[in-house]
Amino acid sequence: MPPLLVARDLRKRYLAGHGRCWAHVQVLASVSLTLQRGERLAIVGARGSGKTTLLHCLTGLRRLDGGSVRWDGSAGAPYRLCGEAATLRAGPREGAALVELPDDSRAAGDWLDALHARHSSHAGWLVLAARLGPLPALAHRVLELRDGVLRPLADRPVMRVAEG
Question: What angle do CA 117, 128, 137 make, to 5 degrees?
Answer without folding.
Answer: 60
